[in-house]
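Side project, low priority. Logging it here so it doesn't get lost.
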Amino acid sequence: MRALLKGLLIIGAMLLAQAATAQQESVGRQLAALPWQTAPGEGTIGSVARISLEGGLRFLDESASSRFLELNGNPPRRGNWVLTPAAVTWFAVFSFEQIGYVRDDEHLDANELLRALQQGDSRANAERQRLGMPTLRTDGWAVEPRYDPETRRLEWATRLVDDRGDATINYSIRLLGRGGVMTAILVSDPQHLTEDMREFRAALRGFDYQQGERYAEYRQGDRIAEYGLAGLILGGAAVAGAGFLKSFGKVIGLGVLAAGAAVFAFFKRFFVKDGSNPPGR
């Protein structure tokens, strides 16, 4: 009887593994079948910005990007645009917040900011649980917040851990513009973060705001944002409504993006064909 039970358990485990593999392959095929824009050309991000598609970069419009996020285990979202390299070793999500001109003269306290992000995990996870998705917690900084006044670029990276203990890195950039801020989130893994950040920064050399939308084109009388650099890290409008300027402790954090390693692997299998694209890792 024990031998029979053991055999049934082994067969059951094999069937579950086969079902999981079939599901991952289905996801990979659906990702590869999305209407990708490729070089030569450029991706248009709403009506405010554009990015050149060079070196094998691929781009999705707003509708396809929503589906891409859903296939990667995230809530479907409007107002997003996806960029990936040909080898599909990472992806980046762009979105624009028309919040006004953000003043960039604020000091950033990395420790306080991390505590506030961790306090906001519960709200983001409540939404993920409602949608039947795994929870994520902010484990710490992969890159502490820093701002470059010459490029008007704010960047940081958080290390996220899911309920199975798997880690994902969200590397976030905010590109300040005249009427608001472009959010660019890189989804990577801890082992390849440095390499992926380098590739993503290179890709951002092809990013530019449309004429009239650049930070340097600010004019007296333009709308001023209700919060500064720290508010961008902690979730924007949620910060303004929570009295962030008076207390970190009242901040409500924002959601984060996830991507499973298996999804990347199967995506690459179905996307990269006949050796014409750069090899993945």
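Brief comment: The radius of gyration is 20 Å.
Revisit when time allows.
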